[in-house]
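Archive entry. Fields below.
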Amino acid sequence: MAEHADAVHQVSLAEYRVKSANNRLGLWLFIFSDAFVFLGLLVTRFNLMPDARPELDQTLGLIVTSVLLASSFFMNRAEIAAGVGDIKNFLRNTLVTMILGIGFLVGVVAVEWPAAAEHISVSEGVAGSVFFTMTGFHAFHVLTGVIFLFIVWNNGRKGLYTAERHFAVEACAIYWHFIDVVWVFFYPALYLMGSAVIGG
Amino acid sequence: MEEETKNKKADYSVNWLVLWVLVILTAGEFYLGVASSGRAGTFMIVFALLKAGFIIASYMNIGRIFGRREEH
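PREDICTED_STRUCTURE:
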């Protein structure tokens, strides 16, 4: 692992910055294209249920939303810490982000899904299809983000990042915040807008 | 070194500021959704756009793709 860290640091800083700038642009292009998939899901939701929403626990929705927003706060702190070479703080904040991400997943998949299944289902009406497709697709992104966070945390533990060379941390942070931005739109669309329909 | 410390402090201040903005907007959104029984859709979309804007500008640092503050 020490050899790998040495190899990473053998690339000149100027070269690393050029590579990072290109990678950053590529990452944003990916984020932009992925956003269209989520936009498609939102359009589907409002097209199928213009004045209605699935019957869901609004308080639970607020709790999982708060957990995800808090995770973005800690992810940003992790990135700031990595930017100044404060690896101890970076590791701590990344770990908190990971735990909150897992908390969000548990809240949606293990708590909200069984509770929602009492009122709505995929096979009966559009409400179930809309809810489970939107939250399922988003939860899969969160799971990917948690795996990405673990990889970055583990690499940080091995000393692969410095104040000057930590693009992987920035990429992970951008991806994580993107997941948060998607939920910022999904939350009101699923939990707050329109009147609740049971079994619709 | 001094500038680095100053930048770090500024970054942490923005980090806290965005969190408070998100908390206030989310609470407002929740209140609107519950109080209006879901009929204040336009306001909720505005709230969501504001929240997304803050996250994209401050946490995701979209300015970096245009070369603004390349590295810390």
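CURATOR_NOTE: Chain A has a mean pLDDT of 92.
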